[in-house]
Amino acid sequence: MNKPALTAPTVDVHAHLLLPEVEALVADRPGLAEAKALDARRNGPEALAVSGPMVRERIPLLTDVAARLARMDAQGVDVQLVSPSPSHYHYWSDEATARQVWQTANRVTADHCAKAPERLRGLGLVPLQHPHLAVEALDDALDQGLLGVEISSHAPGTPGVELSDPGLEPFWARAAETGAILFLHPFGCTLDERLDAWYLSNTVGQPTENAVALSHLIFSGVLDRHPGLKIIAAHGGGYLPTHIGRSDHAWRARPDARGCAREPSSYLKDLWFDSLVHDPAVLRHLVATAGADRVLLGSDFPFDMGNEDPLGALRAADLPAAVHDAIAGTNAAALLGLG
């Protein structure tokens, strides 16, 4: 169907930035080699052989503002919400290194966005592996003029840190108090070598991690205790929205699944989801399940698992004009506070 012209800017909430400065500061730190070896095992040699050249050919889009804006123009995107590549999380790092990582990431991301302030908004990083430092890192990001931070589905380790960890309660409270945007974007999957072929580490791993992380937030009552949180889930929330009925059934049938105040499906309307689901039918289902006001345009710019034509993918879902326009930009403009 024909779509009317938008009155709001088109906004892509899922776009990435490479930070060479972060990689330079961790290059000689203990723990990096082990983390890289784990990542290699999880992905497998075939995936690494493809991913290396893919990233290298996209470095201009990931680092150069002029190249980014030119591609946005070609896509019909007015504004990007730019977040660091998840490869920069470095959740293996000790406290001193973690502080350097978030300070550098926040500063470099803010500097990148400041070169085109009308078109670029940014997110920083926090060290989930050190929950007691998360508020400090969030405040640093906000002080830099960023809108919030990007987080993974968990912080690996022994023990790891899930998003339901009580140590993160001050972080959730501060994020709700400040209105910070939290972009939930997994990196890696704890299914490990079971997914080390055919790029299952990404195609299956990412939506699995999204579903697990969101389930921790819902079932643990985080969203009950902090109703003002502004969480955007990448990849359409993964498998959770399409299989949320199973979560509802568990909540009704089992007392051990009743950590939240109401049916899990009701919390989908308290979250936001990007549109990057690679299937028009799934996008229509996401809109029906979460609500048309809870879905935002997302492309995973400029990686190969993203969509080079996010507005085309949105049109393919053949949604009503008002819903199309809401997802293309109106919802994000309201959430991000764009004029």
From TrEMBL:
Organism: Kitasatospora herbaricolor
Highest taxon above the source species: Bacteria
Pfam short name (any one): Amidohydro_2
PANTHER family found in the cross-reference section: 2-AMINO-3-CARBOXYLMUCONATE-6-SEMIALDEHYDE DECARBOXYLASE (PTHR21240), ISO-OROTATE DECARBOXYLASE (EUROFUNG) (PTHR21240:SF28)
Transmembrane segments: none
Protein name: Amidohydrolase
Annotated keywords: Lyase
InterPro entries: ACMSD (IPR032465), Amidohydro-rel (IPR006680), Metal_Hydrolase (IPR032466)
Amidohydrolase-related domain mapped to chain residues: 11-338
